[in-house]
Amino acid sequence: MQSNDIQQRIQSVEQCADEAKRAVSSGSVPGELRQSVEALHEQARQAQQACNSSTSGQQQGGGMEQLRQPVMQLEQAADRAMQACRSAGSVDPQLEQAIQRAHQEASSLKKQMQQMG
What we know:
The chain is mainly alpha-helical and 117 residues long. The protein is built from four helices and no strands. The protein has one domain: Four Helix Bundle (Hemerythrin (Met), subunit A), CATH 1.20.120.230. The radius of gyration is 14 Å and the shape is elongated.
């Protein structure tokens, strides 16, 4: 898996997090869900920054190691957002779908990175 593939996957998670953030700001959402979406969005931004700094002028191997931690944290943030979404009960379907897509993307990215060892 190339680092630009990882970057695209992280961007995809970030877009879903953006969508979720917009949905959260437009409706009445429980505080815990709002906070978890904010945290997911922030974590996606940090992973994106880590990805940008690891691809600028570094070798492939070192870059992968640098990205492992941010991707793990991103997946954990997506887990928390999913959990908060379930706990909230009835949620805007658009918000729920955005969180699910972000979670799915982050989880599969983490799995792929783990398989690379």
